[in-house]
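Comment thread on ticket #2218

A.B. wrote:
> Attaching the input chain for the structure job we discussed in standup.
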Amino acid sequence: MDPISVSLILTSFVILGLGVLVLPSIKEKNSQLYAINIISILWWVVAMIIFRASSEDSIELSVRLLYTSATFIASLFLLFTFFFPRSQLRATPLLVVSIFIPNLTIVGLTLFGHNIIVDAHVNQHGENVIRFGRLYFLYAIYILFYFNWGYTRLYKKIRHIPDPNAIEKKQLIYLLLGYSVPGFIAFSTNLLLPWIGFFELNWVGQISAIIMVAFSVFAIVKHQLFNTKVIATELLVLALWLTLLLRLLLARSYPDRLSNLIVLVVITGIGVILVRSVKKEVEQREQVEQLAKEKTKALGEVELRNKNLAALQRIAQIVLHESD
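C.D. wrote:
> Ran it. Output below, let me know if you need it in another format.
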């Protein structure tokens, strides 16, 4: 397995691991949307792995699925900008249709016919070669337009928050940086360079997706202070899994592969148990702190009532003294 394929596999595991970080708030609409977005990004990375490993018989289908996946990243990112960081807006049918009808049109042109992708061929001495159709420029315009529309929406939201230290402003900045930097990389290496016949960097955009997911997941969970310990534990476990997976992929003999696989399976189970125990501990801590707040509030109300009662008693004594 070549280093690029190993890097792409590791990237897919990192994205999957980081995606788990949004699960504590999965009931929120913006987290649900972003979880779907992460799935589309993961699909894009895995599709590149399959495309690079395809034979001449399967490469045309794999390249069509690869370019289809990128269209959903663009549309889901745009839809996400309508809801993040607040979920006050409803996903009206008009909004969804206006975003996804062009998306599905491009998907149809990509999957069927030869207007966007004509075919692809395996290159034994480099990256696989793709022939694009006469309407590929529509595909490029669609991707660029949707992402730039999303960038513009995030930038306007940032400007409308006057407080530079506001959490929502920082979240929006993280999200904008997380999408714009790897977005520019992917536009160059995966969208424009292949169009002019240069395919050697066609996989770089997928690697840069780690930046996209990391920044945006951080933006989502930043306000959840009690989840810091959970996040640190998940990242530690994820790093351990990736290290063991890398050892498995690079192992050359069958005994080494078998032993690394057994260790990976065992550590995976231990890691899951560890993360669950830390989450349970954090939940119990939150409950204790909530009970402490409620107790403090109740004691404050009792103290206030006692003060009011004492004041009334003094007033009553004064009134009785004056009447005597």
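A.B. wrote:
> Thanks. Noting for the ticket: The radius of gyration is 27 Å.
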